[in-house]
Design brief:
The protein is an alpha/beta fold. The longest helix is centred in the middle third of the chain and has 14 residues. A 5-stranded parallel β-sheet has the order 3-2-1-4-5. The protein contains 6 helices and 5 strands. The protein has a single domain, classed as Rossmann fold (3-Layer(aba) Sandwich), CATH 3.40.50.1010.
Length: about 140
């Protein structure tokens, strides 16, 4: 089980890091560099990888999708599966937290199941989830 100080890395972090010029690019690169150097304890879930693959494949960038996922899994090797108990918890979270998108309900269920309370994400709707602290990449200080 991860340490309580483990940070869940949302899909938008590697996507902004790999993307073009954007205010979030530099902070997201710095976050992933800190994780790669072991200065930041991180984890993610299989749904984050699916999200990255889906987005870039939909943009007809299949090779880029594979490359970003491969690099991301090198930096964040702690990837939690989506099990039937996670799905059950995600459904309940989704029912109780109408601001969350479907994938984010799954991420929240994974986080809670692993006692992870911090997520690094540009998605502000995580701010509405009780017991979860969102770290905005623009405010992250490594």
């Amino acid at each position: 089980m991860p340490k309580p100080e483990t940070h869940f890395i949302d899909a938008n972090i590697p996507m902004y890091a790999a993307g073009g010029d954007h205010p979030l690019k530099s902070p997201c690169v710095a976050i992933l560099e800190a994780a790669a150097k072991g200065k930041l304890e991180v984890a993610t879930d299989a749904e984050v990888l699916q999200e990255i693959l889906h987005r870039y494949t939909a943009l007809n960038q299949r090779i880029r999708a594979l490359e970003i996922c491969r690099l991301f899994t090198e930096v964040v090797p702690n990837i939690f599966p989506i099990t039937s108990s996670i799905v059950a918890a995600a459904l309940e979270i989704h029912r109780k937290t109408p601001v969350l998108q479907a994938r984010d309900s799954v991420h929240t269920a994974v986080m809670l199941s692993q006692n992870i309370r911090r997520i690094i994400s540009a998605d502000r709707h995580f701010d509405a989830v009780p017991g979860i602290v969102r770290i905005d990449p623009l405010k992250w200080r490594g």
